[in-house]
Design goal:
single chain; about 0% strand; about 160 residues; mainly alpha
Length: about 160
């Protein structure tokens, strides 16, 4: 099955550029791996009003912002891919690292709200956060990557 032009565009917007059709067809579903884990932990952290879960996830997101890969990618690259028979996930571009940086701050704030007993603020921060993560997990559409690409447009002409 060939990845649609829409999915290719969404993945390239996240910084997964220059992947040939074969690689993209194979890895597109697995490029949801880390966002899906993040979404699950966010939802659990918000549902339980748990600053510990949210702050632990913030630490993971911070590594995703600083490293060329997300820590959850390691679970795939050194484990799950051997079960799926697929190649390792490519390194993430600056767009996805930017998304991880935004998630880090958002998770810290959400955890802090729950920690201080501001439950309504925690939900007001946490529910949209989980929804943004769920969007990229299900559709490959990443709002923080869109923001990054707006703030820092690629100076190269299209198809360069």
């Amino acid at each position: 099955m060939t990845v649609s032009a829409v999915v290719r565009k969404r993945l390239e917007a996240q910084g997964f550029c220059n992947l040939d059709d074969t690689t993209l067809d194979e890895l597109a579903p697995w490029l949801r791996w880390s966002p899906a884990f993040c979404t699950a932990f966010m939802a659990i952290g918000v549902a339980l009003k748990s600053p510990i879960i949210l702050w632990a996830l913030a630490a993971t997101a911070l590594f995703g912002a600083l490293l060329p890969f997300h820590p959850f990618d390691l679970l795939y690259n050194y484990g799950a891919r051997y079960l799926t028979g697929t190649r390792p996930l490519p390194h993430q571009g600056p767009q996805r690292r930017f998304a991880c940086a935004i998630a880090t701050a958002w998770l810290l704030a959400t955890g802090w709200a729950f920690y201080t007993g501001s439950i309504l603020v925690g939900y007001a921060l946490g529910v949209p956060l989980a929804l943004v993560a769920a969007l990229v997990s299900t559709t490959h559409f990443c709002i923080p990557s869109l923001i990054y690409n707006t703030l820092f447009p690629d100076p190269r002409p299209p198809n360069a």
